[in-house]
Fold this sequence. Notes:
This protein has helices at 12-23, 53-67, 90-111, 137-156, 175-180, 186-190, 201-212; strands spanning 2-7, 27-32, 42-45, 70-75, 120-124, 163-169, 220-224.
Amino acid sequence: MKYLLITGGSAGIGAHTARHFLEAGYAVVNLSRRSCPVPGVTHLPCDLADRNFVAGIAARLDPELAKADSVTLVHNAARMASDSAADTDSQQLRDVLEINLVAPNSLNRHCIPYMKPGSSILYVGSTLSEKAVPNSYSYVVSKHAVVGMMRTTCQDMAGRGVHTACICPGFTDTEMLREHVPPDAMDSVRAMSAFDRLIEPDEIASTIYWAATNPVINGAVIHANLGQIER
Length: 231
């Protein structure tokens, strides 16, 4: 059995990715506080902000990992705050890093011993993994670090038949985007794409699936943004 373990599969890119893998014949398990709306997906409720979250799900998770022929681990969950270098105290930064970086590390450490050749560890980054905009301080810091984590994962998994990549979506039509972009600014966001539209979550889901099934891209940063217009 091929097995997908995804964080943040309750909505947006995560839910669409869960559906895509399920339809491809994978057993799918979602880790998040809210359940995944896709029928057939197993939900293990947990709070990735809790540093001990893995211990709380291990009894249910480990038997599934042990019987899997391959495991695809997708680090999708992320927290985005409106903050800046001038006003973000260290605890606020820690709170974001706990979800965006520490939780992936905890899952990697737990899951890698179960990963047979053909498995993969995929990170969902952002266009802000390689550039910055104002007032997204902690998110930008963490997404830059995600690329570093992916690249070191690639090196540390050498010879084990486990590959990795970081998929960096552009402006995708998700709940998170609509929470952070006012309706009257959405046209301007669309205009930043060379296609003058938002990306559909299914487009990112299919890109993640492609990355999972093509180990030749091991260590790659994949820009999935329709071609952003730089201004």
